[in-house]
Amino acid sequence: MVYQPTSRVLTVLELLQTYGQLKSTEIAGRLEVDARTVRRYVTTLQDMGIPIESEAGRYGGYALRPGYKLPPLMFSDDEVLVLTLGLLMARRSGLTDAGIAVESALAKIERVLPYGLQERLRALQDAILNDNETNQAPSVSSQTIATLSVASQQKRQVRLRYATPEKTTERVFDPYAVIRHDDHWYTVGYCHLREGIRVFRLDRVEMVNLLTTTFTAPDDFDALEYMLDSFGAIPDRWEIDVLLSMPIEEARRRIPHPLATLTEEGEYVRLHAIMPDLHDFARTLIALGCPMKILNPPELREVFLQIADEIRQIATEN
Fold first, then answer.
1. Dist. CA 115–CA 121, nearest whole Å
2. CATH code of the domain covering residue 305
3. Cα separations (Å) of 195 from 171, 172, 189?
4. How many angstroms separate the CA atoms of 316 and 250, rounded?
5. What is the mean pLDDT of each run of 10 residues along the chain (318 residues)?
6. Residue 1 is assigned to a structural domain of this protein
C-alpha cells in the first residue's frame, strides 16, 4: 500500500474546487511533487467517491464533475490552529463588530474538533485573550475597511466623509491601498478635495460609499512607504513615553483609546502616544493627578516646568 499524505490529498481537492480545472503539471508544481504522485492523489479522491474527471492531451487535466456539491470543508490540525490564530488576531484589530463574528466562528470550529485539538485551541485562545487585554486600538467599522478594500482592488472611487477635531468634510477619494500600522487602520490615495495624495485614519471616517467611477493608480506607487514618509514629515510630532502610577483599569477609563496605548509594567502603567503638541498633552497628563515618570521626550519635562511657573505666577499675584 502506498502512503498518501492526507493534507496533500485534500489540497488537491481544494485546488480543483477553487480553480475548476488544472493540468497535472500545475498541481504538481503547487504541491512540489511529480505528475505520478498527483495521479495517485486523484485516484485516492476518486476512491473516496469524489467525482474527479480527467482529460488526456496537451490541454487536459483534472476537474470536478460539473454540478457536484462538495462536502463540508476539511482542515488539518495545523490549518485549524492557523485559522484560530487569525480569528483571535482579528479580535485585536479594532473592528467594531469583530468580537461577535470571531466568537461565532470559533464556536463553530471548536464544535467539530476532536478533544485533543480542542484543548490546544482553548490554550491558544487563553494566551491571545490575555494579550488582548492591553489592546488600545481605535474602533473601525468593518464595513469601512471592506468598502475601501473593494474600491482599491477594483480601482473604483468612493465618496468619503472624514472627521477631524476641527471639522468634518466630504470628498471624492481614490483609495490606492488600505494599511494597518501601529494599531491604526489607514487608507492612502488621491483626494479630489485637496487635489493631492493624502493619508486618512479609518477610525475618523464617518461614511464611505462606493462609486461607479474608476481611477488609475500611479505606476510603482508604494503606499506604505509614502505613508511612513508623510508621518516623518509632520512638524512637531512628538513620541511620548510616560510611566503612570495608577491602576490600569483607571487609566483606561480616564484616557481615551485613540489617544494613547496603555500597558502594565510592574507597578506602573506605561503610556505611549504620538502627539503634535506637547503643551496640550502635558495638561492632559497633569489632569490625571497621579505620580508619573517622564521617559521621553526630554522636552516634555521642560513643558511641565513652564506650566509649573505659570501656576506659581498665578498663585502669587496680588
1. 10
2. 3.30.70.250
3. 10, 10, 11
4. 34
5. 61 79 84 84 84 73 74 65 71 61 70 68 61 54 84 92 84 92 85 91 91 92 87 68 91 81 89 83 89 90 88 77
6. no
